[in-house]
Amino acid sequence: MNSDIETVVSECVICEKFKKANSKEPLKPHTVPYRPFEKIGVDIMDFSNVSYLVVIDYYSKWIEIAELANKCANEVITKLKTVFSRFGVPNTVISDNIPFNSYIYKNFSNEWHFNYALISPHYSPSNGMVERAVGIAKSIMRKAKEDKRDYLVGLMEYRNTPISGLDLSPAQMMFNRRLKTKLPILNKLLNAELFNNIREKLIERQNTQKLHYDKTAHPLPELNKERMLEY
């Protein structure tokens, strides 16, 4: 009886129209990169009436924040070139934002020899890394504004803070060393070190996150071609 009711409800157009949004599907994580800045995510955020470009490295979780004069493709490209000059050109740039789908941006990716991947802005799990980066950036700026200090100090402290589940900071994964900040630190702790098995640790961390996420996720049923779809 229950299965019959479920079938009727699932095929009812009116029920479909007023039912809750789709439950979340099992997580499909991105492939973990092999090195820093191989794959990055980019997004534009607004804070206190100012626009910023936010960039995150999928390997090290290193975050860059750059103030934008406007949201035009040329302005975004100028900021990206500055970031690329520091870390090199990535293999892949991931985004869900409009300027990255422009003709100018496509030419930029061809000239600088990187691939870009556009994802749906309506499916946030596919760009969760960038969404978290934007959240971190806004949190840093809010705290800096409240404390009346430079947000770049907070950004530097984030880069020097170990990532949960890895015990390595973005700086250590990016440069194999800690950053010297305004906080006191022994000089010997600033020396470069060789960290092994970082990718394996990243994969293990990602698998753990997927396991927890999928506990409340379910595959969506396939669409029935014979059903009437409403737009």
TrEMBL record:
Query: What Gene3D superfamilies does the record tag this protein with?
Result: Ribonuclease H-like superfamily/Ribonuclease H
Determine the domain of life of the protein's source. Answer: Eukaryota
GO MF terms held by the record: nucleic acid binding
**Ranges for the Integrase catalytic domain?**
32-227
Coiled coil region boundaries = none
Q: Which GO terms describe its biological process?
A: DNA integration
> What is the name listed in the Swiss-Prot or TrEMBL entry for this protein?
Uncharacterized protein K02A2.6
- What species was this sequence derived from? Nephila pilipes (Giant wood spider)
